[in-house]
Amino acid sequence: MNWDWGAVRDFMPHFWDGLLVTLQALALGSVISFALGLVWALLMRAPTRWVRWPVGVLTEFIRNTPLLVQLFFLFYVLPEWNITFSALTTGVVAIGLHYSTYTMQVYRAGIEGVPAGQWEAATALNLPLRRTWTAVILPQAIRRVVPALGNYVISMLKDTPMLMAITVLEMLGEARLYSQEHFQFTEPLTVIGVAFILISYPASLLLRALERRLVR
Amino acid sequence: MTSGLWELVLKGVWVTVQLLFLSSLVAGAVSFAVGVARTSRRWIVRFLAGLYTEVFRGTSALIMIFWVYFVLPLAFGWQLVPMWAGTLALGLTYGAYGSEIVRGALNAVDPAQREGGIALSFTPWQRMRLILLPQAVPEMIPSFCNLLVELLKGTALVSIMGMGDLTFSGNLVRLALQESAEIYAYVLLIYFAIAFVITRLMRALEKRLKAGVGKDPGTEAAARELKRAQTTGVGAASGGAA
């Protein structure tokens, strides 16, 4: 095995470009999944089964099928319907949509974890429904679920390399491009592998600390 | 779609199922070996097992696949058949996730059970095999079921390396027909059907295993009742030993 530090040095500028794209995709994907997950979770509490049932089936379907195929679906099918996004936007939407079906369950657990007394107190105080949710239930529910949401952000980070398959030049995409141009596979792939560990391990330690503080 | 193209898709399904089966065997073996090692009394064994888990959980499955395909042959001269390369990469990655499940379930077994084993002078291996695992395994099944569905979704990644699985044949059919919506809808439905079968099988397995250790998975109340009886019984036994 021969390790070439020169190749690492040459690859680093590409690495930073890739890292930036990865972090962009991660940040936007997280925002979409947090928002959409909350929408799903609230829809699942709708009084009529005509809302609950389709939402349940749809989210179950998205959760149990590969993100990669969903990426291909959005990337190749949307243009046929005359909706054109950039590859990165498509990827962000797909990741956000996929993970919203996970965050939805996190929110659900958080909402169910709010003690029944809080609902009863809101009723006793004659708070309107909207205010019950925004001022009483959600602040308590979301505080509890922050660490669990953070775990899904880390999972999302580890799924961003899939965007390479739809031509997004994130870290793995940059590594592959560099490898094919210079025929040096070992260094770029190892560098990004180590980079993922260096990002995700401290992040998970941070989340564990956060969990101890927020969830009592 | 013509019958020839359907044949292509069916071949893809077969490759996906094979890959799922083989890599779940590897992942299962790794998760038990590493998970049990993480409860070891020697710190060095615990440390190495923990290191393995953090490294393989920390990086992405797709990067592992790239690494096994491109770096192993160049760096070490190990050229693996695509099927085995995919199996190895997926099995090692998802095994790291599985080891957390095994460790969690082993730690969740009532400590008095282990103490009972010590009191009866069982060897550590006997304790693991006869006392801890039979009680811990049924508790692992729901988590392993989720992991298996994740593994199924992970098998789609090998298509990026050109292995002819379901996703890959889906891409080929798309190139042939230019009917993206239809073919990808079929592919997604097939994955969903496989995931559904996995979930059903694992639920049946859980029922059998729980019956094997005298637990009724059916009703919550029965499970709680049983748990109380078990703890009190064990408490009395360990009290007698002390």
UniProtKB/TrEMBL annotation, chain A:
Taxonomic source organism: Streptomyces olivochromogenes
Main location: membrane
GO terms for biological process, alphabetical: amino acid transport
Family assignment from sequence similarity: Belongs to the binding-protein-dependent transport system permease family.
Name assigned to this protein: Ectoine/hydroxyectoine ABC transporter permease subunit EhuD
GO molecular function: transmembrane transporter activity
Signal sequence extent: none
Domain ABC transmembrane type-1: from-to ranges: 19-207
Gene3D superfamilies tied to this protein: MetI-like
Automatic annotation (TrEMBL), chain B:
UniProt entry keywords in alphabetical sequence: Amino-acid transport, Cell membrane, Membrane, Transmembrane, Transmembrane helix, Transport
Keyword Disulfide bond assigned: no
Regions annotated as coiled coil: none
Record Gene3D superfamilies: MetI-like (1.10.3720.10)
InterPro entries: AA_ABC_transptr_permease_3TM, ArtM/GltK/GlnP/TcyL/YhdX-like, Ectoine_EhuC, MetI-like, MetI-like_sf
GO molecular function terms listed in the Swiss-Prot or TrEMBL record: transmembrane transporter activity
Residues passing through the membrane, by range: 12-37, 49-70, 183-202
Keyword Ubl conjugation carried by entry: no
Membrane association type: Multi-pass membrane protein
BP terms from Gene Ontology: amino acid transport
Localisation: Cell membrane
Residue intervals of the ABC transmembrane type-1 domain: 13-202
GO CC annotation terms, alphabetical: ATP-binding cassette (ABC) transporter complex
Family statement drawn from the similarity comment of this UniProt entry: Belongs to the binding-protein-dependent transport system permease family.
Database matches in PANTHER family: L-CYSTINE TRANSPORT SYSTEM PERMEASE PROTEIN TCYL, MEMBRANE COMPONENT OF AMINO ACID ABC TRANSPORTER
Name by which UniProt lists this protein: Ectoine/hydroxyectoine ABC transporter permease subunit EhuC
Species per Swiss-Prot/TrEMBL record: Streptomyces olivochromogenes
